[in-house]
Specification:
Blueprint: H1 4-11, H2 15-25, E1 37-42, H3 50-59, E2 64-69, H4 75-87, E3 93-98, H5 105-115, E4 124-125, E5 128-133, H6 141-151, E6 158-161, E7 176-177, H7 188-202, E8 207-208, E9 211-212, E10 216-217, E11 227-228, H8 234-245, E12 251-254, H9 275-288
Length: 317
């Protein structure tokens, strides 16, 4: 119904409404007393035993999975339903990582709102489901604002953008930002507090949700775009140190639970045993034992910037 060109034409009409919604429906994180949580991106790559994965994740201190999702009725949607069902008895939650980039964004999101948004098993913040979006820089803020106003005019959910373009937060399309990747950085202890400071400089009352990662190596599936040595768990520790130093008000996201193709997984396996789930438990306990608060972040030296990418998400030439 609402194609990208159509949405762009309507963007100007919605600007006044957009500005109003941003003030009225924001998450107000500066006053939040929500408990700290740990989430993890989930792909369902290695194991078909979703119940076992949920049990392993909970034992590691993870409270919910963020499931790759691209529309109601497909395989990814069924995977979301499986995670929701597997977690019901133990209180394990799930939500979506929206990956659909085509002319049917409105229909896909409308389908989620109609059929999934009321599920009590969804990850939530202050009573509203939290939805994660991937590669949001592929469309301008005006596009996302118009889509948001069509799909969710009453702000029934919280939308989190991806990336390190923190000017994105000036738009009411987004209630916060959660960069998917950190493993490209050689200095996550400095990078994550620096990102947090930039996000808060633009929108201090919106959510900052940092990622943590054990490392990466995608050379097995493409020409290498990310290689970061795990250093026997020390890189993972550095990302956690940076994430906690960035003082997020609500959540930390493990990137990833089981993206085995890009070797960002912490799921137990033959190569690393349970090293990364054990480390996750230690840091999760530390994180959840601290009181939620919004304190100023003092960044370290300016770290390196993320490499530019093209529309497909690959490194630009």
């Amino acid at each position: 119904m609402w194609s990208p060109p159509r949405l762009r034409r309507l963007a100007v009409v919605g600007l006044a409404v957009v500005a109003t919604f941003g003030t009225q429906f924001g998450p107000h994180v500066a006053h939040s007393e929500s408990p700290h949580v740990v989430l993890a991106y989930y792909y369902g790559m290695q194991s078909g035993d979703v119940r076992q994965q949920v049990q392993q994740a909970q034992a590691a201190g993870i409270d919910g999975f963020i499931v790759w999702w691209d529309g109601v009725g497909g395989g990814r949607d069924q995977q979301l339903v499986q995670v929701l069902q597997a977690g019901r008895a133990s209180g394990f939650k799930a939500t979506i990582h929206f990956h659909a980039w085509d002319a049917n964004l409105y229909e896909e999101m409308r389908g989620f709102y109609d059929q999934r948004l009321s599920d009590p098993g969804l990850v939530s913040f202050e009573g509203r489901p939290v939805l994660f979006f991937w590669a949001t820089w592929q469309f301008p803020n005006s596009y996302w604002s118009e889509l948001r106003n069509q799909v969710d005019p009453d702000r029934r959910a919280i939308w989190l953008a991806d990336g390190d373009q923190f000017g994105t937060l000036s738009s009411d399309a987004w209630d916060g930002i959660s960069p998917y990747a950190i493993a490209w950085s050689a200095n996550p202890r400095g990078q994550l507090p620096s990102w947090a400071a930039k996000a808060r400089a633009v929108a201090p009352d919106k959510l900052w949700v940092p990622p943590v990662s054990p490392g990466c190596d995608d050379s097995g599936v493409r020409a290498t775009t990310c290689f970061q040595n795990r250093a026997d768990g020390n890189y993972y520790k550095a990302t956690w140190d940076g994430a906690l130093a960035s003082n997020p008000p609500w959540a930390v996201v493990v990137s990833t639970w089981d993206e085995w193709a890009e070797q960002t997984q912490i799921e137990p396996g033959a190569d690393y045993g349970d090293l990364y789930t054990s480390l996750t438990r230690v840091y999760a306990d530390t994180w959840k034992g601290s009181a939620p608060a919004m304190q100023p972040v003092v960044p370290g030296p300016e770290p390196e910037q993320a490499p530019p990418v093209d529309e497909a998400g690959e490194p630009a030439e």
